[in-house]
């Protein structure tokens, strides 16, 4: 069963990188957008994509124990075959220490020949042939920050990013597999419904429930709480959208 190891802090799991993402937006606090398609980073985002795997490993293996060390690749990442059929997103913070990968998520696109994880781990909830190639599963959603308010904001950006992509590309039914506590949290943000009973999923080392996300209703709900996020992400794709304002330059001057 997954539990957060409090000895592994959020500060420790957040990767800090050299990035050009903020080179033309030096005062922005956050940037968010698509960083890879089908396991291939977008041009200029190779470092960001590599770092997002570091965040995934530090959270899912070291901090929460949701994945076993034995499932990692030789390079120490949790990259799997689903990355090769996913679109991957990141939220990056413009911090005085550098660019920090504070949020990541991926959408697994089903395709013609391989079932989604929800079909494999919860085989009783969907009939054979029920899903088409445009069906999607939300996966590897992580938001981490030292402050709860910023972590919640990063998560809101991740939801907006995925909803912007899902609605803009007119993809089909969208699913996720969640721990019950996360299901309760997500229910307050998105329009979701259970499609099966609670069950132990060996791959995630915990009890989970399969859910389906109502995309139009979720877009409406997120727009009501975070006006403009989804529209900004739609307009920026495939580039980054920028939000907020940082005062890191002021902090550096005062420190000097």
From TrEMBL:
Pfam families, sorted: FeeM
Taxonomic source organism: Leucobacter triazinivorans
Location of the N-acyl amino acid synthase FeeM catalytic core domain: 53-204
Coiled-coil annotated spans: none
SUPFAM superfamilies assigned to the protein according to its UniProt record, in alphabetical order: Acyl-CoA N-acyltransferases (Nat)
Example of a GO MF term: transferase activity
Protein name, UniProt field: GNAT family N-acetyltransferase
Transmembrane helix keyword on record: no
Domain of life, per lineage: Bacteria
The entry's keywords: Transferase
């Amino acid at each position: 069963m997954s539990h957060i190891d409090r000895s592994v802090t959020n500060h420790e799991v957040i990767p800090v990188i050299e990035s050009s993402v903020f080179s033309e937006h030096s005062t922005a606090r956050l940037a968010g957008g698509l960083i890879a398609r089908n396991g291939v980073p977008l041009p200029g985002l190779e470092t960001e994509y590599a770092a997002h795997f570091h965040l995934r490993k530090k959270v899912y293996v070291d901090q929460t124990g949701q994945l076993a060390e034995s499932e990692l690749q030789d390079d120490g990442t949790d990259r799997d075959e689903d990355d090769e059929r996913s679109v991957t997103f990141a939220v990056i913070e413009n911090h005085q220490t550098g660019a920090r990968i504070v949020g990541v998520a991926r959408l697994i696109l089903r395709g013609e020949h391989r079932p989604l994880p929800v079909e494999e781990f919860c085989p009783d909830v969907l009939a054979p042939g029920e899903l088409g190639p445009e069906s999607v599963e939300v996966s590897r959603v992580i938001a981490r920050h030292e402050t709860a308010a910023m972590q919640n904001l990063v998560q809101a950006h991740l939801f907006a990013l995925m909803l912007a992509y899902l609605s803009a590309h007119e993809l089909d039914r969208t699913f996720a597999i969640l721990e019950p506590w996360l299901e309760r949290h997500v229910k307050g943000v998105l329009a979701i419904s259970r499609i099966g009973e609670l069950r132990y999923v060996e791959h995630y080392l915990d009890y989970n429930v399969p859910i389906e996300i109502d995309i139009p209703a979720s877009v409406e709900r997120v727009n009501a709480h975070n006006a403009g996020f989804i529209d900004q992400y739609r307009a920026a794709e495939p580039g980054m959208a920028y939000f907020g304002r940082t005062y890191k330059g002021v902090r550096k001057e005062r420190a000097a």
